[in-house]
Amino acid sequence: MSTFDPAVHLPDDLLERIRSRAAAVDAENRFPDEDLAELTDAGYLALLVPTELGGAGLGLAEVTVLQQRLASAAPATALAINMHLVWTGVAKVLADRGIDTLRFVQEGAVAGEVFAFGISEACNDLVLFGSDTAAVPRGDGSYAFTGTKIFTSLGPVWTQLGLHGLDTTSPDAPQMVYAFVPRTDAVVTRDDWDTVGMRGTQSRTTELHGVVAPADRVVRRVAPGPNPDPIVFGIFSVFEILLASVYTGVARRALDLAVETAKKRTSKKTGLAYSDDPDIRWRVAEMALAYDAMLPQIAALAADVDGRADHGGLWFAKLSGLKHRAAVAAKGIVDEAMLVAGGSSYFTRSELGRLYRDVLAGLFHPSDPESAHSTVAAAWLGPVSGG
Q1: 333-358 burial, b if ≥16 CB within 10 A, otherwise e?
Q2: What is the pairing mode between strands 204-213 and 187-189?
Q3: Stretch 290-312: mean pLDDT, rounded?
Q4: Which of 103, 131, 230, 265 is 20 to 30 A away from residue 27, measured at CA?
């Protein structure tokens, strides 16, 4: 039996170099180019690509561990890389189920291509089930996409954008079209990423002005609305599980910093170390209890995707629930860590202060709290009657 060693794929010295740059990346509101270069050289962008294609051949369960590890050093770097890993993960999910249409993604990741995730649109709460982006067929199997995508992580550096749009003109319309487009003059990346946290992701707004996806990069056409198609399942499952991993990694770093601080600080009132204060001990224990609960949940659901488990109609509830719990738990853990550390954590120079800003982003990713609760309610209670 082989033993997975995270340090093989994300060595300690590389992790520490990434950690050492995180504060400057945040303060300067820039993309972590050095991190991407080093991770690319380490083969990190091809973690989920089979060994026979030149990748590391890891499963989703193993990559969740690596993303937690990376997020503990630089949350924004981990979140940005997540969006590339989503597409390589979708390629693996499809290939595992006998669908080889995303082999070019796997081969591209090995060759140094950077894939971005162009799904989110302003005010589009349908997410995967609808799009305001027009996908216009061109007669030769290619499509031209026109619209605006938001929160496009890896904004300054991506080479291929995986996206969706709505075809309303074909005989079988409407159809959701999933495709990949290159960065050309028909794509405008706005320099508009000035956020509270996760600043290094540079998740800029992307304008599409008739950018063309060649016929061999149009990978799926499916009906709008809730759909069990493998492309929809692949995106939703990998996206939610890897997001949960990033925010769980943030939580782990906050917990470690809280423990470190508690051991260093001494009460003027009692003369005792904060680590001996019963209130502080209770607070740290609450953090650890919440953190420990997330690890087996992520591992189990990722293993189920790798193993092609059948959760039937509960799949989407389980996935959205996992992401929701991870985001909420991580925020709670960082909140508690701030209180353990005291007022010094409120300064921008504090790593905990940065984690506090970064963890807020977790609540805004799909599935947001409203969507997660709606999905879970529908899975257990059925659709709202009379709706």
Answers
A1: bbebbbebbeeebeeeebbbbbbbbb
A2: antiparallel
A3: 97
A4: 265
Q: Mark whether 236 and 364 lie in a shared domain.
A: yes
Task: List the one residue out of 326, 329, 95, 343 whose CA is nearest residue 219.
Answer: 95
Given a contact cutoff of 8 angstroms between Cβ atoms, the answer to whether 192 and 204 are in contact is yes
CATH code of 51's domain: 1.10.540.10
Q: Is-contact 241 305, C-beta < 8 A?
A: yes
Write down which residue in 166, 192, 222 finishes a domain: 222
Q: Closest Cα partner for 245 from 362, 360, 106?
A: 362
- Gyration radius of the chain's alpha carbons: 21
Residues 211-241 have pLDDT tens digits of 999 999 999 999 999 888 999 999 999 999 9
Q: Are residues 152 and 203 in the same domain?
A: yes
335 and 306 in one domain? yes
Enter the pTM of the model: 0.97
User: Which of the 8 DSSP states describes residue 222?
Assistant: E
The residue among 222, 256, 286 that closes a domain is 222
Does 131 share its domain with 149?
yes
End-to-end CA distance of the chain: 52
Position 1 scores a pLDDT of 43
Q: At residue 206, does pLDDT exceed 80?
A: yes
Q: What confidence score (pLDDT) does residue 176 get?
A: 98
Tell whether 1 is covered by a domain: no
Same-domain check for residues 91 and 133:
no
In angstroms, rounded to a whole number, what is the distance separating the alpha carbons of residues 95 and 97? 5
Alpha carbon separation from 203 to 150, 310, 363 (Å, rounded): 7, 34, 16
**Is residue 387 situated within a structural domain?**
no
Residue-number span of the structural domain to which 213 is assigned: 116-222
How would you classify the pairing of strands 187-189 and 134-137? unpaired
Phi-psi category of residue 271: left, alpha or beta, with phi > 0 → left and psi -120 to 50 → alpha = left
Strand partners for 136: 144
The token pair at 353 is 């202060």
Residues recorded for the chain? 387
